[in-house]
Write a structure and sequence with these properties.
Length: 807
């Protein structure tokens, strides 16, 4: 009998093969699997044949044997699940796991042989665990056996904790960082917020019991993250949306006991817009956006103009048109001021200021221009007697050639005003018109901070009985994010295993999103009347089918991801540098997101809901994932050796590429992450160099960036009147001039995630704070100097000097 026949017959392990080889005077040339084994009767057995037989045997186990899991579901028997569990136990005990690979393989074989001797086709999960523990004892790995048992026990305890209402409430009462600082927009000391956090704690525990066990377990383990567990699935809330303000203002709506008719002035229209936001934001957990707000409000500004013109005629004013324009302009300015104050003083039933986003910038009529100017003037002015920076609404200014990009464009003066606002208030962000179309298929503002809808296909429109693509009135059903670094860590540097694990986790993510869709579909329109009955997202009957507003890809669902840098670093080490990066590592990272994008496209077509890849704005998740992974894989270089994971596809925050290098690197990833994307650069105080700021804006257009924001120094000390950047450390922020660290006399603004925030008044979670502290500037000084010492000229983007500076 040849050796391969012996292997096949006895299901021998590698260690047993070695013993047999010694007995039969078989010479093993090398440990490498590609080498050969020589038999004494001159027959030759190539070791790869042994591996093929071993793989075939494993396949036989996988297809013929099944496992009863804790939730009583049936799963296929997989050898690698035992291998992974044993490997983690060894890793807890020994510093160099590579020295124990052969023994781990032996233990797994012993375990499987114990199970096979029972002649059963199905095993309970506890039987498998007992077999593993007994095998570890058999080979006298007592400490590893203890580690394995402790790991399983801790896993069971953690799940019980997370699904316990008492446990979640106690975390809140103890002001656990995971609860009170999870959302930097929530002030945990306010009664309304305390009530929301209490309800959220209960909903989290209930939600984990509602979720399918495999999804709940994956969420607890940190493999995936079910976003906004404090709202869903305990309730059928959806995420964010583009509210159809034009429809609601034009056709009227009902709020509470009041039937509201179409407004006759701009002042009334803006007041109604605030009321709509209050109602809809209380019935969803994500951001509310008004797109093309200047164009939507312009007809009501025109009505106000006619009213003022009528008054001028009645008073026999000589220049009646001039009077009407002056009064309309004043009304616009006052309305925009009232709107900003209203939003920043409003508390929704979610215990926070609504996440509000305004898209504007494309209108060129007199009324549209004045509304744009009014929005920007109010943002520059600030709030209150101290002129503090307004956090909301988030402003998205659209850049488009022929409208406002170049000096001869009709709205170029408004672009200049927007740049002044950025220098003063770090707002607005910009949408590059043509690039947004290239990435998503049509132009629209984001839903909330960065979620984007895709254009509706002719097939979807036909199925819906509609004739043209649109964005307003559409929404997002929710996000489930993938922990990319964890997949790389679990694969132990084996790329073949990585790709297999990636597909497994993607399928898990898909299943979670499908559950999310089914959960939201259980809602009735009367649960969210402003949104589903009176025009916000549609006009359905109270007990109608909300799926009419979701299906045929009208609504999106988001496949989020975190930590592309750290995932890639597990295989390539520190692959991003100040001005260069490892091309092979880049290509690997790109291939992963491309694979996700292809999966999303296939599932979108298969299920009829807008699956799309989403660069997660991991406000606290970048810390949560890292904390979980650090316990399993402590201090892995460039992965778990810092307190946070990098957001989505962004360049690692400690590196210092030029703004142009960073934009060039990130632009291709925006196109793949078409369900949610944003890029930013960190700059010093730019008050003396408006032209340099404009050059960076313009270059973002040429680089293919769709959505772009600039972080710059705009802090203000109210005690010594310092303007610039506060010094930050893990303890907080203080004025570099006088040392002031009092949040009441400091106006400190940081980009917490997609939104601005005041970290002194509402501190973010530890990991996010660490990420903020580690951010470095991508340009030096106030005159726009690059690292090579050259100055950034105002027309650099137009003169193609950028490449020269980069090189």
């Amino acid at each position: 009998m040849q050796l391969k026949d012996v292997v096949n017959e006895l299901s021998l392990s590698e260690m047993q093969i070695t013993r047999l080889a010694n007995d039969k005077k078989i010479v093993r040339y090398h440990k490498n699997h590609s080498k050969m084994w020589e038999y004494d009767d001159e027959s030759v057995f190539v070791y790869k044949h042994y591996l093929e037989e071993k793989q075939r045997l494993a396949q036989r186990y996988n297809t013929q044997k099944t496992v009863i899991k804790r939730n009583k579901s049936i799963a296929k028997f997989h050898r690698e699940n035992i291998t992974n569990a044993v490997t983690k136990a060894f890793d807890d005990v020994y510093s160099n796991i590579e020295d124990h690979i052969t023994k781990i393989d032996q233990i797994v074989d012993l375990t499987i042989n114990k199970l096979l001797r029972q002649n059963k086709m199905q095993f309970d999960i506890t039987e498998i665990q007992s077999a593993v523990e007994q095998s570890l004892v058999d080979v006298e790995e007592f400490k590893v056996a203890e580690a394995y048992t402790a790991y399983r026990l801790q896993h069971d305890i953690n799940r019980k904790k997370q699904t316990s209402v008492d446990y979640q409430i106690n975390k809140l009462l103890k002001k656990d960082d995971d609860v009170v600082n999870e959302n930097a927009n929530k002030d945990a000391d306010v009664y309304a917020t305390k009530r929301d956090l209490t309800a959220g704690a209960v909903s989290k525990a209930i939600g984990l019991k509602i979720l399918p066990k495999k999804i709940a377990d994956a969420n607890i383990k940190g493999l995936i993250h079910w976003h906004d567990l404090d709202y869903s699935p305990a309730n059928q809330y959806h995420n964010c949306g583009l509210i159809d303000l034009e429809d609601m203002l034009k056709n009227g709506f009902t709020l509470g006991n009041a039937d509201v008719e179409s407004p006759h002035t701009l002042t009334t229209a803006v007041a109604q817009a605030s009321q709509i936001l209050s109602a809809i934001s209380s019935s969803q957990y994500g951001g509310c956006s008004y797109d093309r707000i200047d164009e939507v409000l312009a007809p009501y500004a025109k009505k106000s103009f006619k009213k003022h013109l009528k008054i001028a005629k009645s008073l026999n004013i000589e220049d009646q048109k001039n009077y009407a324009e002056i009064m309309t302009r004043r009304e616009i300015q006052q309305a925009m001021q009232s709107f900003e104050y209203e939003i920043n003083t409003l508390y929704s039933s979610n215990g926070q200021t609504p996440f509000v986003t305004l898209g504007f910038g494309l209108g060129t009529s007199w009324f549209e221009r004045e509304i744009q100017i009014g929005i920007l003037h109010q943002r520059i002015a600030g709030l209150g007697k101290d002129h503090r920076t307004a956090i909301f609404p988030k402003l998205l200014f659209t850049i488009k050639p022929g409208v406002n990009m170049h000096p001869k464009d009709p709205n170029y003066d408004i672009k200049k005003l927007a740049l002044k606002s950025v220098i003063k208030r770090m707002s607005p962000e910009i949408l590059n018109y043509d690039n947004v179309i290239d990435i998503t298929g049509s132009f629209k503002a984001s839903m909330g901070c960065r979620s984007f809808l895709s254009a509706m296909s002719p097939e979807d429109l036909k199925a819906r009985g509609e004739t043209h693509d649109y964005s307003s009135g559409r929404l997002n059903l929710g996000v489930v994010s993938l922990n990319l670094p964890r997949i790389a860590l679990d694969s132990n540097g084996d790329k073949e295993k990585f790709w297999k694990l990636l597909d497994e986790r993607l399928n898990l993510q898909r299943d979670a999103l499908l559950f999310r869709i089914e959960n939201v579909k259980q809602a009735l329109p009367k649960y969210n009347p402003a949104g589903f009955m009176y025009g916000g997202y549609g006009r359905l009957d109270p007990d109608g089918n909300v799926d009419e507003l979701f299906n045929h890809n009208r609504a999106s669902v988001s496949m989020g991801y975190v930590g592309l840098y750290e995932m890639t670093a597990r295989f390539y080490g520190d692959w991003q540098h100040d001005h260069t990066y490892n091309q092979e590592a880049h290509d690997f990272a790109y291939s992963v997101i491309k694979h996700m994008n292809e999966k999303a496209a296939a599932w979108k077509k298969q299920y009829g809901y807008g699956f799309s890849v989403y660069g997660t704005p991991a406000e606290s998740l970048n810390s949560t994932f890292e904390e979980i992974d650090h316990k399993l894989y402590p201090n892995v270089p460039f992965v778990t050796d810092h307190d946070f994971y990098t957001n989505s596809f962004h360049y690692f925050v400690e590196r210092k590429p030029t703004p142009f290098e960073k934009l060039d690197f990130e632009a291709p990833f925006q196109k793949l992450s078409n369900g949610g994307f944003i890029s930013y650069v960190e700059l010093p105080c730019m008050k003396d160099n408006l032209d340099a700021l404009e050059a960076i804006w313009d270059y973002s257009y040429k680089a293919g960036i769709g959505y772009f924001e600039i972080n710059t120094a705009i802090d203000h000390c109210l005690e010594c009147d310092f303007h610039g950047e506060y010094t930050a450390d893990e303890k907080g922020y203080h004025c570099p001039n006088c040392g002031n660290s009092n949040p009441e006399t400091s106006d400190v603004t940081r980009r917490i995630c997609g939104y601005l925030g005041n970290p002194m008044k509402r501190p973010p979670k530890h990991g996010r704070q660490a990420e903020i502290i580690h951010r470095v500037k991508h340009m030096s000084g106030t005159l726009g100097r690059l690292d090579n010492g050259e100055f950034l000229e105002s027309d650099i983007a137009d003169k193609n000097k950028v490449r020269k500076l980069n090189n």
